[in-house]
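A.,

Following up on our hallway conversation. Structure tokens first:
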């Protein structure tokens, strides 16, 4: 199952990008034998100031056709890391070829797009900067792959 992290905004070179690249490389390496990955980041940017509505159109286009759509949203469902691993495994086992994980911009994700999602995943009720959400998500994907592989990285 290929994974697209569809995110608003351009991330320049720096510590967040280094971490994301590192975790996604590790995810790809661990996930290959599990039928997970590769993972990529697809960045969208609305330069015309169209707000959430315009961003939603760009995010929809960034997600592969037929992908499971999972928004990152503080109002969503908080899962443990093993629960996230199980969820990824279940989507993979259902034969879903693509998963799109959608991260909004400063104003969040358009309610219309939120309503279309198969799932909303929360990293807690606090609002995190969207660039940090990318880092945390990349780490959780790697962690999930190690859990499914039975590796020692995750400890309960
Ligand atoms: C700065 S936040 C925008 C928050 C905005 N108040 C909203 O209504 O969504 C930018 C993006 O980061 C992600 N995000 C921020 N905090 C999050 C959390 N606790 N759990 C999951 N995603 C989060 C969401 O995708 C959000 O659209």
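Then the amino acids I'd put at each of the 156 positions:
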């Amino acid at each position: 199952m290929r994974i697209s992290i569809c995110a608003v905004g351009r991330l320049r070179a720096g510590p967040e990008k280094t971490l994301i690249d590192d975790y996604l490389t590790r995810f790809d390496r661990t996930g290959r034998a599990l039928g997970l990955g590769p993972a990529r980041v697809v960045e969208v940017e609305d330069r015309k100031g169209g707000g959430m509505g315009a961003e939603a159109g760009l995010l929809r286009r960034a997600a592969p056709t037929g992908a499971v759509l999972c928004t990152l949203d503080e109002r969503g469902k908080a899962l443990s890391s093993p629960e996230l691993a199980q969820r990824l495994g279940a989507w993979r086992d259902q034969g879903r070829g693509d998963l799109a994980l959608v991260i909004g911009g400063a104003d969040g994700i358009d309610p219309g797009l939120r309503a279309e999602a198969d799932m909303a995943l929360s990293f807690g009720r606090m609002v995190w900067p969207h660039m940090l959400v990318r880092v945390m998500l990349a780490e959780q994907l790697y962690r999930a792959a190690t859990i499914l592989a039975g590796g020692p990285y995750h400890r309960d």
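The domain at 2-149 is CATH 3.40.1280.10 (Alpha/beta knot). Curious whether your intuition agrees with the design.

B.
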